[in-house]
Amino acid sequence: xxxxxxxxxxxxxxxxxxxxxxxxxxxxxxxxxxxxxxxxxxxxxxxxxxxxxxxxxxxxxxxxxxxxxxxxxxxxxxxxxxxxxxxxxxxxxxxxxxxxxxxxxxxxxxxxxxxxxxxxxxxxxxxxxxxxxxxxxxxxxxxxxxxxxxxxxxxxxxxxxxxxxxxxxxxxxxxxxxxxxxxxxxxxxxxxxxxxxxxxxxxxxxxxxxxxxxxxxxxxxxxxxxxxxxxxxxxxxxxxxxxxxxxxxxxxxxxxxxxxxxxxxxxxxxxxxxxxxxxxxxxxxxxxxxxxxxxxxxxxxxxxxx
Length: 306
Prior knowledge:
This protein has 11 helices and 12 strands. By secondary structure, it is an alpha/beta fold. It has 3 domains: about 5-65, Orthogonal Bundle (Arc Repressor Mutant, subunit A), CATH 1.10.10.10; about 95-160 and about 270-300, Periplasmic binding protein-like II (D-Maltodextrin-Binding Protein, domain 2); about 165-265, D-Maltodextrin-Binding Protein, domain 2. Strands 3, 4, 5, 6, 7, 8, 9, 10, 11 and 12 form a 10-stranded mixed beta sheet that branches. A two-stranded antiparallel sheet has the order 1-2. Strand 8, helix 8 (about 200-210) and strand 9 form a beta-alpha-beta unit. The longest helix is centred in the first third of the chain and has 24 residues, at about 60-85.
């Protein structure tokens, strides 16, 4: 009996998400295309796996029996592929990953250059994604792993903390905060504040600090990414709450950064993979270089600041 891994993948994702619309989106298929995959799998097994209704999908008793077996088969297939991708530096190959746009625009170029020196024949395919898309692409096996902050995982994914960065404030030269060696959160109350949009990890952390101090956060502007927030601050529209990992981009634009104190707020950079997957040596080297690049970022004010 020949089983199609794509059909098994479609069935497992449909069972996890409980609906054709969401599963089709994750697999980048139409609902009709997903239905065809499920129907062909049922025909191959000669058993009905799901009960379809207008609003939801439920597994049949046979579907409940098949699901854990299908999950194991997919995990085994992933392990086989990973063994094949266990490249040494002189071997050709590729790795694929998803990461936040902020990381792609700041740390990634340095890491790619160092990785190319170590693995000149291994290509790197990267996708700039928000957290939800990183998770979806890992489920769909479009990427080997993801790198991000505050990614919500579940029992199907592994999340490994790699390093941390710190929340900071960005402003242009000549701003009154430039005279301060230490900038505290309460110092921001005197200026328009630029934050990320509601729902982002950065916004949640920022709101929590203000709430703990009994203050309401009323942003002057809300940006969807830290690069935009930095650009708004550069034009004098306010001070931007950003992570210290954006320092390379800030320095390139002659912007100043000060880590925020009282309290110091950190966030964790996590490696996200499918549970049970095995990363190649090349992938592990890339992750090590990326972690080191984030860790090396050290933001300190000049000695003459007060």
